[in-house]
Design goal:
Elements (H helix, E strand, L loop, with lengths): L2 H12 L4 H7 L4 H15 L4 E4 L2 E5 L1 H26 L1
Antiparallel strand pairs: 1-2
Length: 87
């Protein structure tokens, strides 16, 4: 699990589960976002997103839990980065 993958998951949630919009904000491609989330799901051995065909309908219960943890970790990483940059 990487911070990059967690950032992607957080941005998907911020963009109302729209992978294309998340990709624009993250300056990458929609297939790149999809691949990162699929890699994260394989690594964790859980589904994070509820999908139907090519649409994301929501977060699974596990996805909600991972997203909450991701937000905490990313907030902490951002705080540490800010402190280091202001020194």
């Amino acid at each position: 699990m990487t911070l990059k993958q967690l950032r992607f998951l957080r941005e998907i949630a911020r963009q109302s589960l729209n992978m294309s919009k998340a990709a624009v904000v993250l300056h990458t491609t929609q297939p790149g976002v999809t691949r990162q989330i699929q890699d994260l799901e394989r690594e964790l051995d859980i589904e994070l997103l509820v999908r139907r065909k090519n649409r994301v309908l929501g977060l699974t219960e596990a996805g909600e839990a991972v997203l909450a943890s991701a937000r905490r970790m990313l907030d902490e990483a951002d705080r540490k980065s800010t402190r280091l940059n202001s020194s």
